[in-house]
Amino acid sequence: MNQTPQDFNELEARITEEYATLSRRLQQTARFLLDHPQEVAFATVAKLSEQAGVTPSTLIRFANSFGFKGFSEMQQLFRSRLVDELPNYTERIRAVRSATGETPDSTQLLWEFAEANRDVLDQLPARIDPQNLERALDLLEQAEIVHVLGTRRSFVVASYAAYAFHHIEKRAFLINGLGGMQGEQVKAIGARDALLVVSFSPYAEESRQAADEARQRGIPLVVITDSSLSPLARIADVALIVHEAEVKSFRGLTASLCLTQTLAIALGVRQEKARDRSASDSDIERA
């Protein structure tokens, strides 16, 4: 049994490979989906079925035939493709308006973003394995310096992590690639340091290279990413998986920032406990 496609390219390849075996209606559906990926990313099942000239149940049956639980699960691959191919926000806004025929007002957008981010925050504690969280804290606490890397959208989370670590008196260095020096900054990571990488699909090449080098050198690697199938998750000592809100192809960072804040404050609590134990031991020795 074939696995469910994990991205648009896999889905496209599967559809192409199995096209001849599909029924006439499913072939009609396949042609429409691949010919109009932008519309498929955002339109409702009802609107798409009307445009494709098939029933809504046919769209759902098509998704099921490729291993998806429902049409919305398959639709997510089309949305992810659009995000990857249209990094420019203006182009993405134009694509959403073209596909849906809608121009949401500011209040509507505020409610949609707030509701979507509230949902992911509610789900976050249950999604993070407590053992992984503690293991990540172990590695960060033991490190002399925590080097932090995040590029593009992930840079916001990485820069906050470095800021927060400084404020709990944990030595930290933000790998920012200033002056094209990222390679040198990664090489400066010491054997007793740790690397924290924040990276989301499509996983920046710079982040992947830094994580690979850390792995090869035996440097403890903690990763915040969006899937257990992420190339960084597979090589990390600890991978913390977060699912961010997405509204009209615009992904948030609320869950990642919340997790990062938790790491920093929990690490600060650990360090304070360690100082208390050290002071207590000193008092006993003097007594």
Q: Helix and strand string, N-terminal first?
A: HHHHHHHHHEHEHEHEEEEH
Radius of gyration from CA coordinates: 23 Å
Helical content (DSSP H or I, runs of 4+): 55-70%
Quick one: biggest sheet? 5 strands, parallel
Instruction: Give the N-to-C terminal Cα separation.
Output: 71 Å
What class would the helix/strand composition place it in? alpha/beta
Strand content: 5-15%
Low-confidence stretches: none
Average residue pLDDT: 87
Shape: elongated
DSSP strand tally: 7
The count of helical stretches stands at 13
Spatial ordering of strands, largest sheet: 2-1-3-4-5
InterPro entries: Homeodomain-like_sf, HTH_RpiR, RpiR-like, RpiR-like_SIS, SIS_dom, SIS_dom_sf, WH-like_DNA-bd_sf
Keywords: DNA-binding, Transcription, Transcription regulation
Domain HTH rpiR-type: 9-85
Protein name: MurR/RpiR family transcriptional regulator
Description:
By secondary structure, the chain is α/β, with parallel strands linked by helices. Helices cover 61% and strands 9% of the residues. It is built from 13 helices and seven strands. The chain has helices spanning 8-18, 24-35, 37-42, 45-52, 56-65, 71-85, 89-100, 106-127, 130-142, 155-167, 182-187, 205-217, 254-286; strands at residues 146-150, 172-175, 194-198, 221-225, 238-241, 246-247, 250-251. The strands form two sheets. It has a five-stranded parallel β-sheet with strand order 2-1-3-4-5, with helices on both faces. A two-stranded antiparallel ribbon has the order 6-7. It is elongated, with a radius of gyration of 23 Å.
